[in-house]
Amino acid sequence: MAHRTPLFAAHQSAGARMVPFGGWDMPLHYGSQLDEHHVVRRAAGVFDVSHMRAVDLSGPRATEFLRYLLANDVARLHTPGTALYSCMLNAAGGVIDDLILYQCAPDHYRLVLNAATTDSDLDWIHQQAAPFAPVIARRDDLAMLAVQGPEARAKTIPLLPTALSATLEQLKPFHCCQQDDLFVARTGYTGEDGFEIILPNAQVEALWQRLLEAGVRPCGLGARDTLRLEAGMNLSGQDMTPDVSPLVSGLGWTIAWEPTERDFIGRAALEPLRQVPPTERLVGLLLLERGVLRPGQPVLWKDQPAGELTSGGFSPTLERSIGLARVRAEVTDDCTVEIRGKRLAARVVKPPFVRQGQVKIPLS
Amino acid sequence: MSQVPTDRVYNDSHEWLMDNGDGTATVGISEHAQEALGDLVFVEPPKIGDELSAKQACAVVESVKAASDVYSPISGEVVEINEQLSDSPELINGDAYGEGWIFRLKIADPSEIEALLDADAYGEQIADD
């Protein structure tokens, strides 16, 4: 039986089409995925992302542990209330998962893990943690909302405790703040401004209802996927996997090589790869003909197999099909994608496709 | 519960077929099918002149989320396709039984039409979905 978030009944009464996702029953859309996509680019939408799992990690050696566990360096977080995006690698340098890590206080961190990989991520973290003896608390008692869009912050702040208002008004991107069990971060997965809010299960429905009353539209996982693809953000398990190096998956920028004496899991495997140009890379593709790019479709370059789509779909903002593809490094310009036996022209472009409502790639 | 018009017949794979009375039939997908697919963004129609056999996959409708085959309910030659779907696939979402028709074919064997589901039978099938 699939897990249900505390908002399951609220989704049903909002007309959601529920689908299985990562072991959870989640809303795909509430009528029109396209409308939900546009409302996030133009106004404000709210996503129930309570299937994602907050994990609190603390202890005198917590920082030291995370500097070993993660490819990005938590020592870059100099003050509490800041956030860091990082990959968690295996010993071979493959990507187990990506996550956002928040520093709540010195030696007190919160990670947010993807739904489908929560259990395996936590097993891995526990296996690595022993010598550092951190306290690891899986927060199944907490729910999570993502309010995203150009109007998201203005619509959300009046609904949160007034004691936090001034802090929230000033909160910078990739920063977070907290009052008791209410945690608010200026982060997201849509390419728009907004907040991610973590709060007790018992409180999430009241906030959800107040957001809807304030004119924030409920949005499903369908729109979440088209928004993140337009924003050029990788999806774990699809655009990066445990078998593929982050250097291939366009995530080299998230690896902190300095200081060189920091030993993190995967470093030994990646160091030699770093010295040579990668043979493959993740690129953005714009389909030049009618059709829809989908994961798994073969990419050809000069009529030779050159890789495959890892993500693909219809971009509601561009009204064109876009995708991410893992291809041989020499594929830098026009290529073709095989869709149901036909070869359709596509162009290599640099993601993001869309950010903050603005088209970021040439369309002609 | 989506409506099922009684002026046409249905395939168990959610296509409808309307006998035009002139030796041709019009084919589209049902309201139930368009609801399940969600916002449509691309339609790949059959080609005029294609000789289809009954139950043959002959067109593709793609929603934001996924691609689905459309099966011809009967055999026959494609004589017309709905050109408007090329720019406006959402016509299927808005009017699956009218402006969202997909193609017309020349009926090869009228007895194949009798083997399809009437509105009641199709309504029962989707009630069980």
What are the SSEs and their pairings?
The complex is a heterodimer of chains A (364) and B (129).
Chain A: H1 8-13, E1 17-21, E2 24-29, H2 33-42, E3 45-48, E4 53-58, H3 62-69, E5 82-89, E6 95-105, E7 108-113, H4 118-129, E8 135-138, E9 142-148, H5 152-156, H6 162-170, E10 176-179, E11 182-185, E12 194-200, H7 201-213, E13 217-218, H8 221-230, H9 267-274, E14 280-287, E15 298-301, E16 304-315, E17 320-328, E18 334-339, E19 342-349, E20 354-355, E21 358-359
Parallel strand pairs in A: 3-13
Antiparallel strand pairs in A: 1-2, 3-9, 4-7, 4-8, 5-6, 6-7, 9-12, 10-11, 11-12, 14-17, 14-19, 15-16, 15-18, 16-17, 18-19, 20-21
Helix pairs in contact in A: 2-8
Chain B: E1 9-10, E2 15-19, E3 24-29, H1 31-37, E4 40-44, E5 51-52, E6 57-63, E7 67-71, E8 76-81, H2 84-87, H3 91-94, E9 103-107, H4 111-114, H5 119-127
Antiparallel strand pairs in B: 1-2, 2-3, 3-9, 4-6, 5-8, 6-7, 8-9
Note down, in words, how this protein is organized.
The complex is a heterodimer of chains A (364) and B (129). By secondary structure, chain A is α+β, with helices and mostly antiparallel strands. Chain A has a domain at 279-359: Elongation Factor Tu (Ef-tu), domain 3. Helix content of chain A is 22%, strand content 34%. In chain A, the strands form 5 sheets. Chain A has a 6-stranded mixed beta sheet, sandwiched between helices. In chain A, strands 14-17-16-15-18-19 form a 6-stranded antiparallel β-barrel. In chain A, strands 5-6-7-4-8 form a 5-stranded antiparallel beta sheet, with helices on one face. The longest helix of chain A is centred in the middle third of the chain and has 13 residues, at 201-213. Chain A is globular and about 60 Å long. The mean pLDDT of chain A is 97. With 129 residues, chain B is of the alpha+beta class. Chain B has one domain: Beta Barrel (OB fold (Dihydrolipoamide Acetyltransferase, E2P)), CATH 2.40.50. Helices cover 22% and strands 33% of the residues of chain B. Chain B has helices at residues 31-37, 84-87, 91-94, 111-114, 119-127, and strands at 9-10, 15-19, 24-29, 40-44, 51-52, 57-63, 67-71, 76-81, 103-107. Chain B has a 6-stranded antiparallel beta sheet with strand order 1-2-3-9-8-5. Chain B has a 3-stranded antiparallel beta sheet with strand order 4-6-7. Chain B is globular. The chains are: A alpha+beta (364), B alpha+beta (129). Chain A binds chain B through residues 17, 28-29, 32-34, 222, 226, 290-292, 294, 313-314, 316, 321, 340, and chain B through 38-39, 41-42, 44, 60, 62, 64-67, 86.
